[in-house]
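TA notes. Do not distribute before section.
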Amino acid sequence: MRRSGLWPRCWGRDVVADAFGWRWLSHRVGLLADRLGGVRTLLIGSTLQGLALFLYLPAGGLVSLYVVSLVFGLSQGGIVPSYALIVREYMPAKEAGARVGFVMMATIMGMALGGWVSGQIYDWTGSYQWAFINGIVWNGVNVAIMLWLLLRSRPRKPAIPVPAPQPA
């Protein structure tokens, strides 16, 4: 028995996604990514994430922390899938599996290293301020790379499918 194309073990996640409207939002972000392309989508997400990191600096109360965390999390949710779109747009299809796997591995390793480095910065300074500044700087590097990619290169044209021969 299936519901919405998902097996029963996924129903809980399905219900939560429906309840909070995340399914609607993720669908809209997906449509936006299809229209704008992976690099532009990543650029928008990275810019929003940088803004959220900047807003962490003055956040003093619990409510402001939650609001900024919501913006940060929603922008992060748009960043990671856009890497697969970028690979699809700039690399040959036969290399997509290996390239997407490598990019996702690098993404996860970068997030792990960034979290560890920020923890070390907190240990050295006793404040999260420099840890957030570290995140802002690395986010700026990401935005600069995406701007360079957007301005200096062109996505690969998708291969035109050859129609199957029709029986006579």
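Switch to the second chain here.
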Amino acid sequence: MRNTKAFKEAVAQTLTELARRGVTFAPATVEDTIEKNMIMVAERLGIQVRSAWRYFDAAAMAEHLARSRSSYEESSSEKGVGQAPRCRRSTTRSSPWSSPACPRRC
């Protein structure tokens, strides 16, 4: 699928639409998303992938990717998201089932 003219045009159009919205994605991410989307559409409609291209809309795909990016950034802005958990400082072990001392020497 990735070697077809339709696929390459779809990726180029989607990247252009994303750029117009001021959103950047790696081309490989856009390619993967389009490929998965087209396969899913073809399977749901019971048609071949090459026939599913008539339902592709680069602007809608770019809008979806942009919304996904913004909702991810909003949900990740909470305090502590993306940071390793803090270790408890404990010099003694109260039971054999308690966690070992922090390997990072917190």
